[in-house]
Write a structure and sequence with these properties.
The protein has about 425 residues and is α+β, with helices and mostly antiparallel strands. Helix content is about 60%, strand content about 15%.
């Protein structure tokens, strides 16, 4: 959007230059040219009137007195009525401007002057117009760049709010921008988010209530079928009762799963914009003492300094699982560092050590629940994978030996930082304005 605003401003200035600057660059030199010719013509007429008064032949003294200091800047050729030719002044080098008139008594006056003075004035006008156009373009670029930042910042904040709403945050904390149209979109987005949150809450409550209410009749039905199975001695009735019990057990399991899922969703923490530095500091405080006890190094390297969209507890749990595995089963220094994806809208966190790593077969199964090569439960990496994917990210083995585990998450672009989007000293109104139509 900022680029479009700059292009629009430059196009507007180019249009103004085309409408005003180009005609001025044409009219100005033409005016100088015409003024110079008129001045020569008026001077020739003045000499002609003098010749009429001095007729038939003017004296050289009178001509010299009339020309004065202008003798060297022009050349005057006079042909009197009796056929005499008088030349006054030095010959002029090309290019020249000439004017010829015939006086009332028939004398001919021819004036020739150098054109360099006129050319200098014309070039000066063109330079002045070109400089004005360049100054207008530069001023428009500076103003458009500044104003585009102030206009783009609320839109990027609105995009961040939409990202928070999409990630499950019911009440994202963002201040109104002071731009009426953007604030209207923001308010409508908030209202839609509240309505959606209300509907989701009702659906969860309905699932919880339905699961709870169905458990009692399903238990009673199961007991009744078991009673029928025990009371009857006919094989086919006992077989059918057994089939019914299996279906009831299946329905009971589904109800239990729905109830557990509903409770789990109610207890989930929504994603939010968090700082990687804070997550790294928390992990360092938690694990540094464990590494010191075994004489190994734990290094955190964050060169991006960008915020990410994730659930803090989920990301901390996933990183803790990877660091713990490197501590237990790896060797050498454990490094936790960040890197940027090519899309610039996401980043990754690498957890690596200097151990032997894994085989290709182990890489394919390492995230399967229950799989372990060291006698553990095999739940940690599977749980870490579920937690990261629940936040819209991914986790994989980037390198088998030495091992590198990579976590990918959505990142907030660095262009969204307020200190970059809003220039220093800018005033952004946060008051609500009345709607005007």
């Amino acid at each position: 959007m900022r680029k479009r605003a700059l292009v629009m401003a430059l196009k507007s200035v180019a249009m103004a230059v085309a409408i005003l600057g180009v005609p001025l660059a044409v009219v100005g030199p033409a005016y100088v040219w015409q003024s110079t010719l008129e001045e020569l013509q008026e001077e020739a007429h003045s000499i002609g009137r003098m010749l009429d008064r001095e007729s038939p032949t003017p004296s050289r003294k009178a001509l010299d007195y009339w020309l004065g200091a202008q003798r060297d800047s022009k050349q005057i050729r006079i042909i009197t009525v009796d056929g005499q030719t008088l030349e006054i002044g030095a010959p002029q080098s090309a290019p020249t401007i000439e004017q010829t008139i015939i006086s009332t008594n028939g004398a001919t006056v021819h004036i020739e002057v150098s054109a360099w003075t006129m050319i200098f004035h014309i070039v000066l006008i063109i330079i002045f117009v070109a400089a004005g156009c360049c100054a207008a373009g530069l001023g428009a670029w500076v103003i458009a760049r500044r104003e585009s930042r102030r206009l783009a910042a609320p839109l990027i904040y609105l995009a961040a709010q939409a990202e928070q709403v999409g990630s499950g945050m019911v009440q994202p904390q963002l201040t109104p921008s002071g731009i009426e149209e953007i604030d209207l979109v923001q308010e409508e987005l908030m209202r839609s988010n509240q309505r959606l949150a209300g509907r989701i809450a009702k659906e969860r409550q309905f699932a919880a209530d339905a699961s709870h209410q169905l458990r009692t009749p399903m238990t009673a039905l199961s007991m009744r079928i078991e009673e029928i199975q025990l009371m009857s001695e006919e094989p086919h009735i006992q077989h059918e009762a057994e089939e019914c019990l299996e279906q009831v057990d299946r329905l009971t399991s589904i109800i239990d799963a729905l109830l557990s899922a509903s409770r789990r969703r109610e207890q989930e923490t929504t994603t939010q914009a968090i700082s990687i530095e804070q997550v790294f500091e928390q992990q360092k405080e938690e694990w540094q003492s464990h590494f010191d006890k075994v004489g190994r190094n734990l290094v955190f390297d964050n060169k991006l300094h960008r915020a990410i969209v994730a659930t803090p507890s989920s990301l901390s749990q996933a990183l803790a699982t990877l660091i713990e595995n490197s501590l237990k089963y790896g060797e050498g220094t454990v490094t936790v560092k960040t890197g940027a994806e090519t899309s610039k809208r996401s980043l990754f966190i690498d957890v690596s050590d200097q151990g032997r790593g894994m085989t290709e077969e182990q890489v394919d199964k390492v995230f399967q629940r229950g799989y372990s090569t060291h006698g553990s439960t095999g739940i940690g990496l599977a749980l870490a994978k579920d937690l990261i994917e629940a936040d819209g990210g991914w986790i994989r083995v980037e390198q088998a030996s030495p091992p590198i585990f990579r976590i990918g998450l959505s990142a907030i672009p660095s262009s969204m930082k307020p200190e970059k989007m809003i220039p220093k000293g800018s005033i952004v109104s946060v008051g609500r304005r009345g709607r005007s139509f």
